TrEMBL record:
It comes from the Eukaryota. It is a multi-pass membrane protein. The lineage of its organism: Eukaryota, Sar, Alveolata, Dinophyceae, Peridiniales. This is Wax synthase domain-containing protein. One of its GO terms (molecular function) is acyltransferase activity. It comes from Zooxanthella nutricula. InterPro entries: MB_O-acyltransferase, MBOAT_fam.
Length: 160
């Protein structure tokens, strides 16, 4: 993180973006309660085509939720004179590969994983093992569950 120079204009603009994201999430969550629908099993009763769209909608709402959480934390740091890295550097639907997605989703955690897990595990020379270990750690970081390890293994397979 670096210290913010003039920064107040930057902070004001950043807070406006956070507010607009929050307002959009608030309105959209009331119009389409994707998380509640997923929890109640509504998506399982949809046709496959509509179910895929509902899944994409839920993923976009998750992206927006994390965008707000991480940007509120970053705005707080900016207000304190520290400029930490942005965690959501691209939109969810603005990726053409799984690798690109993970480089932009929680970007600071990605940088940490690359520096402390992926590169020491062999990096590009041993990409399959290094990627597997990185996603294994990430799955464990979230919670020690078999479905998360399967999620990590699938991500590692798509990236390697």
């Amino acid at each position: 993180a670096r210290v913010v120079g003039e920064g107040r204009t930057h902070l004001g603009w950043y807070l406006l973006q956070v507010f607009l994201a929050f307002a959009f999430a608030e309105v959209f969550t009331h119009m389409v309660p994707a998380f509640a629908m997923a929890r109640q099993g509504v998506f399982a009763r949809l046709s496959p085509k509509i179910g895929l769209w509902a899944g994409l909608l839920t993923l976009n709402m998750m992206w927006l939720k994390f965008l707000i959480i991480w940007r509120v934390a970053r705005a707080w740091a900016l207000a304190d004179g520290i400029d930490p890295p942005e965690n959501m550097t691209r939109g969810l639907n603005n990726h053409y590969s799984v690798k690109s997605f993970w480089q932009c989703w929680h970007a600071s955690f990605n940088k940490w994983c690359v520096k402390y897990i992926y590169i020491p595990a062999g990096g590009k020379k041993n990409a399959i093992v290094a990627t597997g270990l990185t996603f294994g750690f990430t799955a464990m970081w979230h919670e020690l569950r078999i479905d998360l390890f399967a999620w990590g293994a699938l991500n590692a397979a798509f990236i390697s």
